[in-house]
Amino acid sequence: MKQRKVPLRKCVACQEMMPKKQLIRVVRTPEGEVQIDLTGKKSGRGAYLCGSVNCFKLAQKTKALDRALKHPIAPEIYEQLARDFVSVEDEFQSAMSTDDEQ
Ligand SMILES: [Zn+2]
Fold first, then answer.
1. Do the domain assignments include residue 3?
2. How far is the CA of 49 from the centre of ligand 1 (A)?
């Protein structure tokens, strides 16, 4: 059996374990800003979401991000993140489909 190390992370919204690269990282920076981190390299506390708007909406509804980031997130921050999420979703999906790692 071939073994491949795929780092798994849990989507904070639907609780599913997914390969890290298929998830979108949301980070709370040391400055207290909450933003989407497509590079996955920003410092701060991170939370992961499936690359789909549905999961973002679920996280918004259940305040899953608040819990994951251990910080209350204002509704306007969620609104901003939702807009950012939609704008990165396409980029993210196409990056995933072209990144064909064998
Ligand atoms: Zn999810």
1. no
2. 5
